[in-house]
UniProtKB/TrEMBL annotation, chains A, B:
PANTHER family: N-ACETYL-D-GLUCOSAMINE KINASE
InterPro entries: ATPase_BadF (IPR002731), ATPase_NBD (IPR043129), Euk-type_GlcNAc_Kinase (IPR052519)
Domain ATPase BadF/BadG/BcrA/BcrD type: 6-255
UniProt keyword annotation of Oxidoreductase present: no
Name of protein: N-acetylglucosamine kinase
Secretion signal, residue range per the UniProt entry: none
Pfam families to which the protein is assigned, alphabetical: BcrAD_BadFG
Presence of keyword Flavoprotein: no
Keywords: Kinase, Transferase
SUPFAM superfamilies: Actin-like ATPase domain
Gene Ontology molecular function terms on file: kinase activity
Length: 295, 295
């Protein structure tokens, strides 16, 4: 009986799945909604199941074959122990391994070789591989980390707008535009902040880059400060990998490149494959012995 | 019939009340638990009532006289409209006015004259009075403001400890001590951060000052950055008051003085009276006509 590998790339806004044969050749792909196992684990399980079934259908296979699949899941929030313990037995697959979304991204971007990736999105995390050793740097989340992330950039844009409103900092086109979105009423912005998640702040991050490109002082100051944080984290993973390959991933990566130090710009390499391909490669490596036994 | 004035100074950790005669002479004082009208309005109402009744008893008066009193309440969270609308009709007093905790502090510290106060506690807010005009600067809360506040200082100490853990920033005695409180397990610190309120972070603020005094580089850097923010806000209120009197209040005020610019240090004045006395003075001014009519 043919056994199938499933790779899952699960994030806070969407979930992607691929199905592959035992050699790791991808046969089909599927997509579904958010799979945030920390904030909504049951929804995440449903969406991951949907995405996997869609991948089987895309491959021209019976969707019920998910139940015999060996799955490798790269998920944000995998470092919260209770969450993984809740999700793992509720997944529809024959065997499942939950690892970080960063690890599958690293695998996809750099294959089996040494090097480092920086994932610059709503949050930030850095991974460095030397031989069999993979170390993560950062990735502690919005409240105490994620410096330079989309969530933090958005928060800084709103914060700066309030400083400008109060006359503590100069007004700029950006601070006026941001305040204008709240009808120029700081109380509305404060009300927003009471319930805002990192992703809510992150929606303002692209605007910081837009205004900076137009020469906005406030936006440029925010990006200088944020890029300096990222430079320091890149220094750290470069130290671990002895200056090996470095790859930027995530929604903000292309936007950030011009603001990074030239010492990093010069050595950036493009990703070889995407995170989903990385998940399939790790599924193949993880389940190789088991699959041989079952063959 | 003698009419009484009540002043309330309500905060997130305790609530203080005073009762005065119609001339504003304080007859008794009382204290009770937290009165955070934003997060726990019913508890706040109970505690404010308790504190006021205790003040009447302290004055040798019947506690039920609170029902005939004219009360002036200085409360954090008074700028959240729905909250005030909920609390106001549920208070035990004959007449009540809810204003900000900042306003009663300003009145207590500077009396009726012009000048500015900075309240440096778990949060921060600045008030400037010129004639009849009182303007507040900052006070937008932890998420988007409160730069230099106890909440922010604590957050920075924890954040810096994680950067040191990752090798992105140098370790110091402070970063080691903070991490040690979480058993040197960043995940425990991250779990703390998921639910931490500004007051929870604020408990680490005094330690930042302690380590800075011992020459800790990380602690000193946090305080330099935070004091620079406060300097800018003080510049702003000094601009509004044309360099008038400036008074620092709040739990961190004395600790911050050595880190502020000398341009501010040199013109600091001590508070004339406390916030509760300010509340009574404002109660007297607010209810003067009404009391005359009732006399």
């Amino acid at each position: 009986m043919q056994r199938y590998l499933v790779g899952i790339d699960g994030g806070g806004t969407s979930c992607r799945a691929a199905v592959a044969d035992a050699t790791g050749r991808i046969l089909g792909r599927g997509k579904s909604g958010a799979s945030n196992i920390m904030t909504a684990p049951d929804t995440a399980i449903l969406n991951m199941t949907d995405a996997a079934r869609s991948a089987f259908i895309d491959a021209g296979l019976d969707a019920d074959l998910v139940e015999s699949a060996h799955a490798y899941l790269g998920l944000a929030g995998n470092n919260v122990e209770n969450t993984v313990a809740y999700v793992l037995p509720r997944l529809p697959f024959y065997q499942s391994v939950i690892e970080s979304d960063g690890l599958i991204a690293l695998q996809g971007a750099l294959g089996n070789g040494d090097g480092a990736v920086a994932i610059l999105g709503t949050g930030t995390i850095y991974l460095a591989r030397t031989g069999a050793d993979v170390r993560s740097v950062g990735g502690w989340g919005y409240h105490l980390g994620d410096l330079g992330s989309g969530g933090r950039l958005g928060q800084m844009a709103l914060q700066q707008s309030l400083l400008a409103y109060d006359g503590i900092a100069p007004q700029s086109a950006m601070t006026r535009a941001v305040l204008d979105e709240f009808s120029n009423e700081p109380r509305k912005m404060v009300a927003f902040s009471q319930a805002a998640k990192p992703g809510d702040y992150g929606r303002y991050a692209p605007r910081v880059f837009e205004f900076a490109a137009k020469g906005d002082d406030a936006a440029q100051a925010i990006l200088r400060q944020s890029a300096a944080f990222i430079d320091l984290a890149l220094d750290r993973v470069s130290e671990i990998t002895d200056g090996g390959r470095l790859c930027l991933l995530g929604g903000l990566s292309a936007l950030y490149v011009p603001y990074l130090s030239t010492r990093h710009q010069e050595r950036l390499v493009p990703p070889v494959e995407d995170a989903l391909s990385g998940a399939i490669a790790l599924a193949k490596a993880t389940f190789a012995n088991m699959m041989d036994g079952a063959a």
